[in-house]
Request: fold
Amino acid sequence: MIAYLTRRLIQAALILLGVSIITFALLYLLPADPVRQIAGRSATPQTVESIRQQLGLDQPFVVQYWRYLTNLLSGDLGRSYIQRSEVTELIVSRLPASLILMVGAILCELAIGLTMGLIAAAKRGSATDQTLMVGSFIGVSAPQFVVGLLLLYVFAVQLGWFPIGGYGTWQHAVLPSLTLGILGAGWYSRMMRSSMIDVLRQDYIRTARAKGLARHAILFRHALPNAILPVVAMIGIDIGLFMSGIVVVESVFGWPGIGQLAWQAIQRVDIPIIMGVTLVSACAIVLGNLLADIVAPFIDPRIKLR
Amino acid sequence: MKKYLASTVAASALALVLGLAPASADEKLDPNAKQGGAITITYKDDVATLDPAIGYDWQNWSMIKSLFDGLMDYEPGTTNLRPELAESYEISPDGTTFTFKLRKGVKFHNGREMTADDVKYSLDRVTNPKTQSPGAGFFASIKGYEDVAGGKAESLAGVTVVDPATVKIELSRPDATFLHVMAINFSHVVPKEEVEKYGADFGKHPVGTGAYKLGEWTLGQRLVFERNADYWHKGLPYLDKITFEIGQEPIVALLRLQKGEVDVPGDGIPPAKFQEVMADPAQKARVVEGGQLQTGYATMNTTMAPFDNVKVRQAVNMAINKERIVKIINNRAVPANQPLPPSMPGYDKNFAGYKYDVEKAKALLGEAGHADGFETQLFVMNTDPNPRIAQAIQQDLAAIGIKASIQSLAQANVIAAGGDKAGAPMIWSGGMAWIADFPDPSNFYGPILGCGGAVQGGWNWAWYCNKDLDDKAAKADSIVDPAKADERYKLWGEIYAKVMEDAPWAPVFNEQRFTMRSPRMAGDDKLYVDPVHIPINYDYVYVNDVQ
Amino acid sequence: MTTPIAPDAPITAPMPAKRRVGVLGRLLKRPLAVIGLIIIAVTVLGAIFAPWLTAYDPNEQLFDGLTLEGAPLPPNAAFWLGTDLLGRDLLTRILYGARTSLIIGIVANGAALFIGTLVGVTAGYFRGWIGGTLMRFTDLMMAFPALLLAICLAAVFQPSLWIVAMVIALVNWVQTARVVFTETSSLAEREFIDAERTIGASTPRILFRHILPHLLPTIIVWGTLGISTTVLLEATLSYLGIGVQPPTASWGNIIFENQTYFQAAPWLVFFPGAAILALALAFNLVGDALRDILDPTQRGRA
Reply:
């Protein structure tokens, strides 16, 4: 186990290294000059060159990257070119908002997905099953910005149940979490359905049925706990989805998370912020996958850590 | 020093006293104003920094003005200069030496009294390349600027502390805009000890002499300004507290305003709600309309064929249907025919400009040898409504045979393309548009129309360089005597008339400001469309529901 | 905007050529797949015959397409779905937008499928350091937040229709590569491949005669599902203002351009939004049915 973890962590570190190189290279190739953004309209060429030197942007790519990497290893993500604050501080100040959104999304996707999957499996082959599965496909086919705008229109504008965007109370979090969670709900309902069907085929369920236990007792007491675990264990993998989703969802709802931070930074080539957010996201994705892999053998003994 | 004084005396003898000492900052307070109360203002975007040497966004610009003061300022709601931290000033007859007498008893928020050393320190700091100030270039006329900017000196040779209450600033050339420069945020006075204490984080812990001090700042959520009880301008500010809520969509802000939770939506009325608000008399009454020192224009790269032909550029000017573009943005602008906006001194309201005339535009294009039109590219920043405006321009150009393909890119990419001589044939300026740094006609020339900006990485995206006009501009800016301001403005008017003859730009519109306020907010309307304080002048507004 | 790892990635066994003939027939027996096929057919026909289906030019900003205050027109007799904020006919733009979606869907997804298969087969068949390196690289791509990567790529290459297709391909090949890799490695260990090797068959022969035909079902399934992902990603990039360049109509940029008005004119968001949803859904339905049909290990389960 420890050897496995060590190996996986080393792999994760290498992956993050790769991510940092690729992102840094992409941003280096960007046809825009961050120094011009810093120096302003009235700057003399002299000033521009001086700022370029201070930031080390006159150095060759390898030197720039090496410096970024050494700073990174000492925990320094640098300072925003435009906002002039520590990138770490900016990300930390916005991370809670994104985390709230993700937790909300996980709750939504589990609540919706598991319920739909459970019902579909219980009524396998029926019209309900068919309808629910079409619903799950709609969930995975719906563009998040459309879902977001639609929910805003119906529940905030027309019905007035929730605020039209913004951040603060739990009411603010409902619609964005739902928007982010609907995609996952589509996948979870399908996974839950097949997992449940698998479990219902097992011998002990047949035994329980033979013993004449009530249908709902079999479903909820015996089948559900076993069916739910492998599905829930997949949550770690969702993080990748969320990291893409927050850019759009935060922009639709005006949610002050790291997605908006990254999007604004890209507009103004604020390279340290873009690097910072990408690395934090990649970290979360890698750890999420690792978590899913570690949890898997505990849930399904047939899976071994490799 | 003596010589200088002597020359001043001699000058006075000739009735050429340029120095004004009206001490008009002590103008009477609003008799109806009540002290106290708190207001809430919303913004969508994060406030970047409150360091006066660095902040250059339209939203932190006005906030910084309330936390810090400069030697000069403007009368509230106007573009008229007046002394602020300076009590009076004198200008030498040749217009190269400015002597400021400082107001006494002005204290920083940390309790220390502000002195001439602080003024010098602040100017040294903003021009020092290590500060990376986007405004350093404004101080280029101060003697010794080159050395500081080049890293050869730490201190501006031209700025001298005469005594704790007197600062003398010598310029390397006469500069009529210098008093404006002393009023922009970049020259606002900061206390050395606090800057050194916080280092690069000074922008998060601003300490100035302004009407308000920073109470609380929760990144990405909220800023609270509290009344500075020790403010030197007795009786100001009227409000006890201003809360800025960040991350609020304009549409949410408007709804909250209608519910009475917000006093001013900082980002204005969202386009989709504009008609609805203006159609309701009760709401419309609370909207203040005013001009903005802004011009939206399309640049044509005068060094790239076929835009190197003035007839082609004039044809483009005639082809654009500005009325329709104004309609597309819900009539929240007025059509423009010259670089300067109407509320800028020097604006020529009799200037005819190029009338919308498709036939004449076609004819001009034919004369230029492009009767069949040509293909080109129009660069635009990729946030709404700019791509839409670009498409409207594209359709207008198509009507005279010019096929312009649109390059809709991130702001930084458009700026980079504009600063590259072979980068962008045409750019729509929206989103990156020129909002004036200070209300003076020269501000629309230098970096965006002068030869100095027509360099690699510069902001003169038309690459327009007319040496005669540069000379004329220098001549206009050497008329330092405020009594001759009209003569100077006339000269600037001629410069822009000539610019329009050469037509490196097609000016399209000047945005109008529509500030909406809650019923409880009071104070002169012009405070709500203050040309230098956007959205409002925080120091002078008040609420009428206290006591 | 990424397809998550499908809950049950298909593992196909070799399949006799005879069975393939019946795929379409069996697809037509499934109502959901039929619905999907109909939506796709309608979209394709709409895209092809757009010029004949509408009286307007998609890019023409009509003088009477806006009110005096500059507001868009609601659906009416002249403009069946109303007009957009520039006074253009919305129906026309949606029809032409279908072209963008389909072209990107086919080109970008084709390219992603090609890259993915190439990487997956190479890594799965050759193993060794080439395979190891390639698969580590796919792991690395998996760690990227896909949308952020696409946004950065779109900022580096100034966007046009083909650049957007390329950006999407560069982001989307990873899933295919992983699935193809898994399958190829299990195929490569099978006896009949070993037998081929022992009788001295050349590597290209084994790859093209034996490995690729066996991968075909997987590629077809992933290719169909991938179009859905691609359509969504294109719409998202255009929605963020970094997709295809205006005035080219795309369902995503219709929403981008008009969303400030979505409360006053919700149809400007709903119609193009419904179009995106319908097309993505259609390819998902067909892809899922194909998976059931082509993949015996899955059949009877889902």
Residues 485-502 of chain B form the longest helix (18 residues). The first strand of chain B starts at residue 38 and ends at 43. Chain B touches chain C at residues 251, 270-273, 275-276, 327-331, 382-385, 387-388, 390-392, 394-395, 405-410, 413 (CB under 8 Å).
